Each structure stands twice: as C-alpha cells, then as structure tokens.
Amino acid sequence: MQASDRFNINSQLEHLQAKYVGTGHADVSRFEWAVNIQRDSYASYVGHYPLLAYFAVAENESIGREKYNFMQKMLLPCGLPPEKDED
Amino acid sequence: MYLYSLTLQRAQGITTAVYGNFSGTKGAQEIVVSRGKVLELLRPDENGKVQVVHSVEVFGAICSLVQFRLTGAQKDYVIVGSDSGRIVILEYNKEKNAFDKIHQETFGKSGCRRIVPGQYVAVDPKGRAAMIGAAEKQKLVYVLNRDNAARLTISSPLEAHKSHTIVFSLVGVDCGFDNPIFAAIELDYADADMDPTGQAAAEAQKHLTFYELDLGLNHVVRKWSEPVDNGANMLVTVPGGADGPGGVLVCAENFVIFKNQGHPDVRAVIPRRSDLPAERGVLIVSAAMHKQKGLFFFLLQTEYGDIFKVTLEYEQKEGTVSELKIKYFDTIPTAAALCVLRTGFLFAASEFGNHALYQFQGIGDDQDVESSSANLVETDEGFQPVFFYPRRLKNLVPIDDIESLMPIMDFKVANFYDEETPQIYALCGRGNRSSLRILRPGLAVTEMAVSPLPGTPRAVWTVKKSVTDDFDSYIIVSFVNATLVLSIGETVEEVSDSGFLGTTPSLSASLLGDDSLMQIHPNGIRHIRSDGRINEWKTPGRMTITKTGYNRQQVVIALSDGKLIYFELDVTGQLIEVEQKEMSGDVACLDIAPVPEGRQRSRFLAVGSFDSTIRILSLDPDDCMQILSVQALTSPPESLLLLDVQTGAVESELGGTRSVFLNAGLQNGVLLRTEVDMVTGQLSDTRTRFLGLRAPKLFATQVHGTRAMLCLSSRPWLGYTHQGHFQLTPLSYETLEHASSFSSDQCPEGVVAVADDQLRVFTIERLGETFNSTAAPLRYTPRKFVLNPTHKNVVVIEADQGALTADELQAAIKEAVENNNEAAGGDKMDEDKPAEGGEDEEKEDPLPEEQYGYPKATADSWASCIRVIRPFPEAKTTCLLELEANECALSLCLVNFHDKEGLGTLLAVGTARDLQWFPKRGGSAGFIHVYRFTDDGDRLQLVHKTQVDGLPTALGSYQGRLLAGMGQTLRIYDLGKKKLLRKCENKHFPNTIVSIRTYGDRIYVGDIQESFHFVKYRKDENQLYIFADDVVPRWLTCSLHMDFDTMAGADKFGNVFMARLPQEVSEEIEDDPTGGKIKFEAGRLNGAPNKLDEIIQFHVGEVVTAMQKAALIPGGQEALLYGTIMGGVGAMLPFTSREDVDFFSHLEMHLRQEHPPLLGRDHMAFRSAYFPVKDVIDGDLCEQFPMLNAETQRKIAEELDRTPGEVLKKLEDIRNRII
Fold first, then answer.
1. Interface pTM (ipTM) of the complex?
2. Is B336 within 8 Å of A64 when comparing Cβ atoms?
3. Which residue ranges does UniProt annotate as crossing the membrane (chain A) (predicted)?
4. A62 vs B113: CB contact, 8 Å cut-off?
C-alpha cells in the first residue's frame, strides 16, 4: 500500500471489509445485513455458555445438541437469498 | 444509589474440563474446570471426594480449555480460549496455590465474536504447537517451545484463515514427531449465500480439513480436505505415532467415522434407544479417551446420557484400521465434559445438576449391545440402526456427588421454619433430575452419632493419651456434680480406670506435657502421670477454682477471690507454681494460646473480667504476669480464644501473613476479633460480629489440619481459613452447649458436643460452600412457583417439552428392564446360578429414573404438572395434579378475589395446549385454571377452567382481581361462578408479557423483549394506561419490584439493571385529578409518553433467572439476591454511606490496575459488556485484594490512607453485612 492510499477512505474500508466479516458498505442489502446479524448472534450464543444453557432448558435439549443446532443454522440463517435484480 | 455486588456462591455448573497433572507432584490426578467465568483446579482425595483446590474468578467468558505437556516434562500447562481476544497459557503454582500466567498474546478484539479466535483451542499431542480458532474464518497457530532455561516460549502467530467457513470442531492430530497437524470440521457457506435457488445450500458439504504446521518452514498449510458426513459435529483424536493408527474419530449424527489422510472411511452406527422417536438423531456431546500401554479406548456420550465405548481394530505397522466397534457402556446424566483418570475414575461434569465421580468396575468387556463397522448394513432408507435398552450401571460405580444447583429456575426467600435466618427456596435442575432445594446460609453438618446421657451435661472434652497418638482416647463429660469418662475404641463405653476423678464436676480435661493427663476441678488440679502416679494440687482454704486456661505446658487458674495462679510444666514433668496475681475484679474467662513450635511457652495470657475489659498478660519469665494491654468492651466477655490466622496466599513466603487474633465472645452475643501484636501484645484492629442471642462460647477445633474456632451461640459457627480467606460461617445445626474437637478412626476431623441431655458427634462437610441444601425431588423441569404464606407451603408448576410423562416413563423403564432381563436371562442360562440373584434384585428395585437417562418423546408433546409441597417439617409433596391433553403450565399466582372472600386465597394457573416455540410462539388454546386450597392448604380443588384467547404467559393479582398477560394483551379478570369474567384490557404491549408485578394501584409489566412498562388503572373509566416505559430493549428473564417508582430486572445476556421513574413524573402521574393528562398525552419514541431512567447497570456474566430482596442475617440490611442459570447466587447491597462508596470505588480502581483479570479481559470492559456499568462496585474484584503480594497490598492500602489490615477488615465487614 502506498502512503497516499492510506488516507483514502475507500482503501481503508476495503481493508476493513476484507479483515472483518460483516463490515457494511453503502450498497448492503437487507438480506446481507440480516444474515450477518443472525450469524453474529448464533456465534455469540455458542460462545456464551450460560445462554446456551438457557436455550437448552427452554427447548428441553442437551447443551451439546443446542450448540450443534446453532452452528448448523449459521449456514442459511435467513433462508434462501432473494433473486438478484438484473439492473 | 450505589450497590456493592458480591458473589455468594460461585457458578456450580461446569462448561469444560481437562485432566492432567498440573501441580507437577508425582502421580497427582487433577482436573481443571471452567465454570463459565471461574477457573478451578479440582483434585479427588484419597477417599474419592473431589476437593476444590483453587478457584479464581477471571472476569471473562471461558470458551475452551486444553492441557498440554512439553516432551519429557512432568507437568501440564493449560491454554485458555476466552472472550478476551488473547491466548493465555497458565501454569498452576502449588506453592502459591494460584494459576500463574506464563504467556498472554493478543490477537484480536475482545468479546465473544464470530471471527475472533477463542471458541476452539487445540494442541498438538506432543505439545509442540497450539491452534486457536473462531466459530468462523480465523485460526491461528502458535509454536510452543522451550528456551535455554527450560521455560516455555511461544512464537508469533501463523495464520490459517479461510473465509466464509464455519468451524464445528478443532483438534490436534497425533502423528508422533512428524510435523504437527490440526484437524477441523469446516463448512463453506459462500455459495449458499449467493444462490437463490437453494441448490448450493442443499449441496453444502462439510469437510474434514488437516492443517499442517511445517516446523522447518514455520508455515501452516491446508494439507488435506475431504468431504465428511454432513451431521459431523465433533472430532476426537486417535492416538498415533507408536501408540496407535493416528487420524481422528469424526462424531456425526448417528455415526462415528474413523478418518485419516489416505485411509478409507471406517464407519459404524451409534446404537439408538429403542424408545427414541424415529425423527430424532443421536448426537455425541462429550468424549474422553483413555490411553495406557498397549491399549486405548474412547468413551463417547450421547445427548441422552448413554456412554459408548469405542475401540479400533488396527494394524500398527501400516496404520490401517480394519474395524471400529461401538459398544453400549453405561448411562449417566449427560455430561458437558468427561475425564478418565489414570487411577480408574471417571469424572463426569454434568450439563445440568450434580456432577459425579465414578469408579470403573469394568471396562465394558462383557457381552453388550455392540455395533461395528464390519456388520454395517446399508438399506434403501440408509444405514440400518442398532437398538438397545438402557440398563442399570454395570461398569461404573458412583463414588462422589458434587453439588450443582444448575440451572436455578427461580428462587424465593421466606422463613417457613421459624429459624434465625430465612431460607432460600430454589427451583433447580431439569427433567427427572429437578428438585426444590431449601438453601440455608452455612455449612452442612453430618451427624455421626447421637447418644443420650444420664442427666444434663455441662461440658465435654476429648483427650489423647499421648502427643504421638493420632486419635483421641477419652471423652470426658462433666455434669453438675460428677464427671463421666468414656473411652473411644471400637465402641464408646464408660471406664473407671482412667485416673480422672469422677465424683466432682470438671473445669477442664486435657493432655499435659507429652503423655500425662490433667483434670482441673473446682477444688484442685489433678495431674495423672503416664505411669499411673497422681499428683493433686489443692486450692488454699475454702477457695475454689472458677476459670482455667491451659495448653500443654502452661496452666492458669482463677480462684474465687479473683486471684490468678500460673503453673508451668518443668523438665521433670512436674507442674510447678510460677507466679500469682491479684486481679481487681472477678475473672470471667481465660485463655492461653498453644505453645508455638520450637518454643518453651506461649507468650500471652488473655484474661477477661466482669468489668467488661480484656487484659493481655505476659507469661515471659522476665515480666511474668505484667499487664501488656487492655481492651474495653461493650459487655462482659464470656469466652476467649487466641487463634492464629494465615491470610493471603497459602504456603507462600510473600503473600501470606500470619497473625494472632484474640477472639472474645461477649455476653450480648457479639464476637470480637482483635489482632494481637506478636511482640508487644498490643491489641489493634478490632472486628465485631453479632452471632446470635446467646453469648458465644469459643472452642478450638481442627479443620484440614489447622486450628479453627467453633463458636457456640444460639447457633454454632465455624471460623476457619479457606483458600487464604478467614471465614466465619454458621453451621446448619442445633444450639449446642459445649463442644470439643473429636478425632477417631471413622471420623478424623469431627466435633463432639453436648446439648440438652445428649452427646453428639458430627463432622463438617464441604468447607468453603456458602449454602447447604436439602432437596425435594420434582418430576419435570420446574418453571415457576409461589410461596403461600397462609398455609406455609409452596406451589410449583413443572413442564417439559418433548418429554415422556411420568406414566410413560415408568412404562418405558419397565419395558427396558424386561428386555434386558430377557437378554440377560438368555445368556445366563449357560452360566452358574449366582446370576439369578442379581436378576431378582433388579426386579425388586426397578431401574432408577436417573440411570435411565433422559428419554425423548415427539417434539410436540408436553408433560406438565402442578405440585403442592409442604416444606415443614420435612419437604413433602401433598398434592400433584398432572395436566392432561398436552397442556403445559406457563404461569401462576395467588389471588384473593375482592367479592369472594369466603373462598380464601385462590391459585390461578395459566396453561397452554400444544405449545410450540418455532416457527412462532403459539398453541392451539390457552386456559386459566382457578384452584382452591383445601385440607389446610395440602390439596388443590379445581374451581373452574376458563379458555382465554392467547397464551397466559404471566399472571398477577391486583386489587382483588386477576391480571393476566396474554401476548400483547394485559387483561383484568373477575371471578364468576362458572368462569373468569373479563373486565378490561389493554392490547398495546410490544411483544409478550412475561411478568406482572403490582404495588398499590400501579402495575409493572415486563415485556419479553422491551423491558418494563408502568401501567395505571383508572377505576372510574375502567381503563388501563401505559404511562411510562424503558428506552432500552431488554430481553427480560426476571423482575423484582424495589419501590413505588423502581423495578429491578435482569436480561437474557447476563445483565442486571434497575429502572426508575423520575420523581417529578411520578408525582405528576399521581396528582392528576382529572386523569386527562394520562389519557391525552402523546406517546414518544413509539412508546409511552414517559421514560424510565436506568439507574443501575451491571454485567453479571451469567443469565440471571431469579431475584429477591432479602436480609440473610438477623437484623441485617436488605440486599438484592440473584440466582443464575449456572447455579450461582449473588447479592447486591446498597451502600449506606458516601465514605464507603469512595473507599470501595477507589479500591476497585486500584485493583483494576494492579491486578488485572487472569485471562486478560479488561475488568471494566467485562462488567460493561452490554451496557456501561453504572453505580455498582464489584466486590468480587475487591475481594481479590488478599491474593496480591504484601508489597502491592501495602501500596494500594497507602493510596487509600489505610493499612492492609484495615482494608481486609473493610472487606470482611461488608461481606458480614450480607451474609
């Protein structure tokens, strides 16, 4: 990266977007945004054991199963993506 | 308002556990467990009891633990993955009894994030490298090595990232001394996100990926990636190198698959329970591996609690695996972690409920249901399943039970037993392991023996015959006019040849010198030599001895005229009078500390007088019987005890300070603890504590081999040092008259005591616990309960989704037992007769529910009941109503209807039929049942059942009517003849009402997602108005009414908060005679016209599920108590003075700087994880002050203008105000 590029807002943003999954941009769609939120939430549930336990008690599942379910839901958290407009 | 937050009982659930030798002691078997935010070292002792050796709060969420050992080393290290964005390597330091942080390397942001590593940690089995991974994308590899001084070094991280990839599991692969390899189950979602047709998502395939760390190039490569079963969730390392074939076991739904690079898959099905619904899979949730010379096997546990033993048939040379066998082993409660100990124990950290230590009785070599890769049958519908029936334990024997209240579903505080302090009634556990537990602050006591005595004893002592004896020889009991001597042997019986004088009461009995005995009675001192000679010292004139103080070398007596006489034992073993002293008034009590090791005598004598003073007298020959210091008291002392206390780090040169405390029990029931200067005898730093209504009598006893203090007031207390803290804790036992330590073969550290006309022997269990509990079992997961003050009983609602009802469960168990018997019967035909006996036994005693595990019914079925428990005198279920037709109880409350007072207190229970959570919360119908208490509150009688629209998720009583929250609607009902009659409603709540509290004419409604709403009911208009709400979206888990304008609550993410209506708004609402203001005021921010202020914010770090306001000590200040899903109990105490707030907030500030949390999470950031912490001082951090080294302690204390002793005293004082 050249010295002048460092102050270029776009290059900074691109860097952030590459490094941190979920960093938004001007054209982020409703679907992309929701998917990110959901994935972040599931990762947070899996990371916070007390929260996993809380869900496990509510659903009457074992904590291990609950964790697996949440990881599995990270694949398609909001269902199928919408059809892309051609223009 | 400022609060002091203190954890009373740390979380009891265990999230992960690793096994190893962390102290480096030869043969040590140790387990490091994480309890969410607490890291602990456990060690099973020789009796098979699991002891907590060290416990430290880390102020962060621990996600993963792994242990490793450098080649050739004797000691294991722990790597901790947490939410700190740092990798931390810890070493247990047994001298300091603490974890030392060896390395801490920062790699990312803090917090549990999707792409910040910490979720998974894996280590190379040879301890050469570690990989730390996130749920998605990031993986970092650190090379571990040794420097010249054999210290552990860590490299800078190597990246092994892959974007758009979810990681399910991460382990190190055992490949001997080749380059370290790590295996991960990965799922790429990039295509699925882009493809609107859903084809890519359907084809998304999990892969098993091997990452190789090239030690020569210092570089990580994706070495190998191959598709793996899409149900894969966990990896288990298979021993490699010289010990086995290497590779990994992939645990997937219904299968276990052996995989290795360049090796075909070896797959076997996991046997399933015969009663399992067809749509359910079988998932492995925990695993343990056992490896010894020439043998290794795996224990895998399914989500239903069944353990399977997995073995591999392999060829060592080529490293090929020919067969994988899965054999049913045993069923124990589902574990979050399993550890096989080298000594033949299995430690099972239960997901919910008590943890257990089992001993192996077999390793599953007997005939049992087995599935193998060799006879895997593939049909059109997939692989053919193998079925089994659970049976009672065969290979494991339970040895120890480690209490865990996890999950606390709800608790309330009441005093149904009319004890000095109230009890906590807590709903704990889930499914068939749930219980109502009655918690009392204090230590649990196990009674060993109770025997009646002739007459009412005054006092009791135990004596050893010789210093070298391990156990006591005699129990001496003194009555008003006689002394009874009991000899301790196989049995305890009266003896007359002991040399003790039986015809007089005794003032003391003890060992004197090395092997002679001494009895002091009112008329003299009787010295019984080991050879049977008896020396008597008689009191002069008509004087009698009133008080005594003694140790093994020194004796002081007080005569009835107030004179003190001091004796010492000389070298020939004679008791010689040394000095006399006239005291100004009558002596109330005396004490001499034991002779310090290596000294001739103890230096100080403490004398308490009836003029409310204590004097310290010197016993040195130079200034014998000179008064060194005086302390004036508020009340005459009753009893004295000099006790040395070791505070701070145990066994440490640096941190630990040893000081002598003079303990005095005063007649007004106060215990005074004053530090005695070891050189000058000056008294300083007095701490007081009210113990009870009777003057405390103090006795020395033994706890873990060190001297401790037993205080007998209206209840007994124990003062002892535990993990560097001096603790004074009540015992849950009756009032005692006199006590002494007791040591015998069966009971090495007990207490013998007298009370009324009985002699009692007991031991004290589970030191360090704050509460002890008694449990009443429940059937399903308890959801909510109410205390019924009129009948002094408890009504609990229990409900479980997808669970078998009690009858179905019994039927299933019966079927399993029959089938097992059949199978066993078939085999046993060939064997000898004794097998028959075992079979009979099984029939008589059906399979316990706990061992049957946790069977599942179809997901849409519910089992639920309403239960009445009478806790007093012993918790007993008096009525149990099973709900039928797939109904489940959601809410309950007690209500007195204003126009039906004749009916008395009624119970309303809200239920739902066919309740389901997904895709949307709903059910086919909602009902409110109204019950009446009959038979003095023991039974429930249905008054009527009303169908309501919506699900009644919350109920409350309001001005003689019933309030029901159904989804977004709040409604008022009146009681009719045949059903409830709706009177008024408000439909404008945002989501679902989960709690309703009322106070006066105000209603406080909690929404599941939108915090509190304050509601006013206007009688003249018959309208409910929401006049204020909160601005913060709070996913409420519990709520508590604090005062007219304030509510306390907790949310799903582990925060506790208080919301208050501003004073002027509250006044405006109350002085609004026309009511126009409420009615016409426009809402703001899509809500009510007025907003609540959040005045307290605090992140606890565990989901808080219960809150109560209560004082746990008699006459104490009320504190907010909370219980968490992890089984922890905490308190928040409001400060009463500005001075204290300043002191503690400064202390907290200094500790944050000088003593940052162990895992590198910033303390302030942790307590502010969701909302910035506000006006709460973290007592848990403050209480880590004694863990600091002396130098830092002094530095901080100086900054606070105090001495370290004063800081400790402050900490102790504030704790004593809570519990």
1. 0.93
2. yes
3. none
4. no
